[in-house]
Write a structure and sequence with these properties.
Structural class: mainly alpha
Helix content: over 70%
Mean pLDDT: 93
Number of strands: 0
Radius of gyration: 16 Å
Number of helices: 6
Low-confidence stretches: none
């Protein structure tokens, strides 16, 4: 999956805001609001953690895909664009993770 695929998935999720709720799981999640989307993201993240410890790579891959999807849904419900997240990541490129974390605790 390329960055372009992530952008397309984020756009698909955004487009689902206008889909029929009885035909779109994404629309149902968005309609349920931030709390539901955050809870679902957390559940999927825990499933990924568990799979990472004890499951074959294919299961980890599938759970990771679920996490990415639910992260994008959570961003959409909060009206945070994927591009904004990618810009933050881009700004962190070339900076040591230790230095970046230290700068956040100072600011």
């Amino acid at each position: 999956m390329s960055g372009d695929a992530l952008t397309r998935l984020a756009q698909t999720i955004q487009d689902r805001r206008s889909a029929a709720a009885d035909r779109s799981y994404t629309r149902q999640l968005l309609d349920a609001g931030t709390e539901k989307c955050a809870k679902k993201f957390g559940e999927e993240a825990v499933e990924l953690v568990i799979a990472s410890v004890s499951s074959p790579a294919a299961a980890v891959t599938a759970e990771a895909a679920d996490v990415v999807y639910h992260l994008l849904v959570l961003l959409e419900v909060r009206q945070v664009s994927l591009n904004d997240v990618l810009n933050v990541l881009e700004g962190r490129m070339g900076t040591s993770g230790l230095d970046e974390k230290a700068s956040r605790s100072r600011g």
